[in-house]
Amino acid sequence: ALPDPHVIVLFGATGDLARRKLLPGLLRLYRAGLMPPDFRIVGTSLDPFDDASFRALAREAVEQFPRSGSGVDDASSWAEFSRRLSFVPGTAGPGALADRVHAARSELGGGRLLHYLSVPPSAARAVVRELGDTGLSEGARIVMEKPFGTDLASAQELNGALHGVFAEQQIFRIDHFLGKEAAQNILALRFANGLFEPIWNRQHIDHVLIEVPETLSIGMRGSFYEGTGAYRDMVVTHLFQVLAFVAMEPPTALEPRAITEEKNKVFRSLKPLDPACVVRGQYDGYRDEPGVAADSETETYVALRAEIDNWRWSGVPFYLRTGKRMADSGRIISIAYHEPPHGMFPAGSGVGSFGPDHMTFDLDEASRLSLSFYGKRPGPGMRLEKASMQFSLEETGLGHDVLEAYERLIHDAMMGDHTLFTTADGIERLWEVSAPLLADPPPLEPYPPGSWGPPSQDELIAPHRWRLPFER
Ligand code: BG6
């Protein structure tokens, strides 16, 4: 089924996310035949654009961040797509936006309204209020970008403001990591097979690693990032959401309420973070980036140990880390199994020398799953080596036409499907868990760009080791 005809209002339409993901993603959905039979996209932001310059910006964006099957070389579909784009500058006042939206709706002969708020937390409440004041909230859906607030109080205020204008059913709090194929593959692997779930617990699992290093710098996002930092930008949102997929109990059905219930139980069981179990880093040169304060205390790297106080996970540490300008990019979840109870292999056989067995999910678009374990090296005697088995969507031939996370989620929002979105309760609980860290952050440690982060991350995880860079 296709979505109903839609007017999509894009707040922050000239920003980094819109250029990098949203505009290329909407074009890709259009070319994949997944957009509504007719639609309009009304961009708005504080920048002084008009229809023509916004179309030019969109064209540049899709050229600079092309999605397969969405390059502008297909001239006729680009023309068809771009004539549906228009722009209303924020300075023109709320009435001007409402007029444009009404005009777009009458062109479509009605249709649904979807507001996409790609704006920083500090601006979100004002936009929500404006939508209420101008009546643009009526019957509309609203997609809220992360980070949702900056702490518990601001998230509660934002939820309060939203609920003053929208019913919960109208609200879609996006976390694009949940739209990644590989994140959903965690659910498929755990709950569609009999093989894995029986060993998915403290009896068999020693620890869990979630690692998302990025080589990217802050680039032109300095002014956004300064008020955010790695913890709010990545951990309280993406990494904890992914952790919930790993840790949750089997939901009664694959439907939004059941999934949300199980995820929220995980969040409730998360112990409030102990600042002594957190490492914060800042890459050398960050303070020289545009928009960054010369004495900035914002972290560009964070590593931490989280614990889930429940029957299944008691005593199993979850180690999380992410950072900018690191040695390599990766997005992995690795499950490390216990060592066997009795060491019968002779010293020098190689057993244990490459760390424990791991099952590793790669959250990249190819959605790889690998299992690394010990096997015998062929030949005389008993020498052990780490071997690895891999599954990837590419290799199975299932990998064509993968929707990028944002594409998948924008489509879900147009269809009214909440399954892969987060909820007010869950988010507020995560801010509660974060409170001790936010109140008393450990000192920043510098790290050189192109490295794996500050050295004390190794003490944090000892006697275990980070999974990246992959050795075996
Ligand atoms: C965004 C963060 O939410 O996720 C960025 O704001 C980060 O800082 C990005 O780079 C990572 O997403 P992806 O899909 O490239 O892994």
Task: Report on the architecture of this protein.
A nine-stranded mixed beta sheet has the order 14-13-12-11-7-10-9-8-15. It has a six-stranded parallel beta sheet with strand order 3-2-1-4-5-6, with helices on both faces. It has helices at 16-31, 51-64, 75-82, 94-108, 121-133, 152-165, 181-191, 222-226, 229-247, 256-269, 393-396, 405-415, 424-439, 456-461, and strands at 6-11, 39-44, 85-87, 112-117, 141-144, 171-173, 205-213, 278-283, 301-306, 318-323, 332-337, 358-362, 369-376, 384-391, 444-447. β12 and β13 (369-376) form a beta hairpin. 35% of the residues lie in helices and 18% in strands. The model has no long low-confidence stretch (mean pLDDT 94). It contains 14 helices and 15 strands. α5 runs parallel beside α6. With 472 residues, the protein is α/β, with parallel strands linked by helices. 6-O-phosphono-beta-D-glucopyranose binds next to loops.
Would you kindly provide a brief summary of this structure?
With 472 residues, this protein is an alpha/beta fold.
Entry keywords:
single chain, 472 residues, alpha/beta, nine-stranded mixed β-sheet, six-stranded parallel β-sheet, 14 helices, 15 strands, globular, binds 6-O-phosphono-beta-D-glucopyranose, oxidoreductase
